[in-house]
Amino acid sequence: MPAETTTAVTLTLSCPDRPGIVHAVTGALAAADGNIVESAQYGSEVTGRFFMRVDAQVGAGITALRDELAPVAERFGMDLELFPTGAPTRTLIMVSKEGHCLNDLLFRQRAGLLPIEIPVIVSNHTDLAPLAAFYGVAFVHVPVDAAAKDTSKDAAEDRLRELIVEHDVDLVVLARYMQILSDRLCGDLAGRAINIHHSFLPSFKGARPYAQAHQRGVKLIGATAHYVTADLDEGPIIEQDVVRVEHQHAAAQLVAMGRDVETRTLRQAVAWHAEHRVLLDGHRTIVFR
After folding, report:
1. Is 135 helix (H, G, I), strand (E, B) or coil?
2. What angle do CA 41, 43, 49 make, to 5 degrees?
3. How far from the centroid of its chain's Cα atoms is residue 13's Cα?
């Protein structure tokens, strides 16, 4: 089919595993004059669920495909979603004072290397406002007063909710945002908030993790990108990466190396999420790379 006469769509689904799922889905695609470009599927023997992701060119359009898939989804009890392929995911980025992850995401978004659109950056400090201005992205300072404790945090999270609605945000990225989100906000953002943790989890907990790693003489340091949940740093893991270190590396060198691995780990997790390649399976993720 000529590309100008078709609509590119991405389909994702999960459901209890049983025979006939792939046949039913591909049949609906065929009925909508669809041509499969990429397809991946996985059946979990642990949870008994089936997962599938399909990129397709559809001659009849996304609405017609949705109509064809509706009875299939009902029949198999599917959690099914359709997206225009390549449409950028509107992404709000939260930061504190460290800008390495933010700078990487802004640069790659501007260069067309990440399928995201960044309408606003939110921070509890003003240190990175010049970086946001350089890229022409709105910067909103939402302070959190440690002395006011819960009252200040509640107000900050209410402001964040307003910004998410105002900017039609689909994804929130905590790019070294050094505040713990409330259980309620974590629930509101379930499956659409990604955090970068400065360790290959399980980790050295508390302050100065690289100093702790240096003191223990570790041979690998890394980073973990995961979905945000109420269980601190224990959300479903999307991506992890490590770099080997040697005894002669000072703690400051570990910090620099750690920043590099954090940026690439977060960047990859954001890209996979924005491309709809990550599906949740309880506390685990299925990533169709």
Report:
1. helix
2. 115
3. 17
Taking the C-alpha atoms of residue 133 and residue 127, their distance in angstroms, rounded to an integer, is 12
Q: Rounded CA gap, 276 and 235, in Å?
A: 18
Span 155-211, pLDDT tens digits: 999 999 999 999 999 999 999 999 999 999 999 999 999 999 877 544 566 667 777
Whole-angstrom distance, CA of residue 64 vs CA of residue 68: 6
Quote the pTM value: 0.91
Angle in degrees, CA 219, 239, 26, rounded to 5: 150
Question: Do 68 and 31 form a contact (C-beta atoms < 8 A)?
Answer: yes
96-128: b (≥16 Cβ within 10 Å) or e: bebbbbbbbbbebbeeeebbbbbebbbbbeeeb
Using the structure block, give the residue that is written with the tokens 């990550």.
278
110-163 pLDDT per residue, tens = 999 999 999 999 999 999 999 999 999 999 999 988 766 667 889 999 999 999
Residues carrying an active site annotation: 233
